[in-house]
Write a structure and sequence with these properties.
This protein has 196 residues and is of the alpha/beta class. It has a single domain, classed as Class I glutamine amidotransferase (GATase) domain (Rossmann fold), CATH 3.40.50.880. The chain is built from six helices and eleven strands. It has a six-stranded mixed β-sheet, sandwiched between helices. The protein has a three-stranded mixed β-sheet with strand order 2-4-5, with helices on one face. β4 and β5 form a beta hairpin. It is globular and about 45 Å long.
Length: 196
């Protein structure tokens, strides 16, 4: 597969596994992954949160690691990227308030470029207005937002994911194997399409 250049949208209290695992795994298979955060530069860090399922009515949240960004948000050109990765956690909740973030999401959607969103990442997709008529999975608590944005929330178990064209979505870090496998397939299909 041809190496792709991917943009990863991060922010403080992004879910720990949901940023660390895709960031490392996608590089491991040969892709370039630029992790950025509004208001931060290359070398700055975001704090992560660890979400776990411990028998409560919702997930628990604990302080995670520091994650070092490897690109500067203000310097990126979304047109130079082949795909977008949106991890979940707390970050999407406030990143969706940044008009530039929403503009980036819309760019990838309009261009038909691969987009992988996990867990609360659907909040960014909904806020950007790119879910109309799309089949989407997310953390179940985000289902109302998916529906209000015109999407169809497709239930899956916590190790599954949903693919709708260029969009790959899943419920949480527990779905990494399926979510990443499907995203790689979508990237490969996209790369094989003729340009123009």
């Amino acid at each position: 597969m041809k190496p792709a250049k991917l943009l990863l949208l991060a922010g403080d209290f992004v879910e720990d596994y949901e940023i660390m695992v895709p960031f490392q795994a996608l590089q491991m298979v040969g892709h370039t992954v630029d992790a950025v955060c509004p208001g931060k530069k290359k070398g700055d860090q975001v704090r992560t949160a660890i979400h776990d399922f411990e028998g409560d009515q919702t997930y628990t949240e604990k302080r995670g690691h520091n994650f070092t960004l490897n690109a500067t948000f203000d310097e990126i050109d979304p047109g130079s990227y082949d795909g977008l990765v949106i991890p979940g956690g707390r970050a999407p909740e406030y990143l969706r308030l940044d008009p530039r973030v929403l503009q980036f999401v819309r760019h990838f959607d309009k261009a038909g470029k691969p987009i992988a969103a996990l867990c609360h990442g659907a909040q960014l997709l909904a806020a950007a207005g790119v879910l109309q008529g799309r089949r989407v999975n997310a953390y179940p608590a985000c289902a109302p937002e998916v529906k209000q944005a015109g999407g169809t929330f497709v239930e899956t178990d916590f190790v599954g994911c949903v693919v709708d064209g260029n969009l790959v979505t899943g419920p949480a870090w527990t779905a990494h194997p399926a979510w990443l496998r499907q995203f790689l397939q979508v990237l490969e299909t996209h790369a094989a399409q003729p340009v123009g």
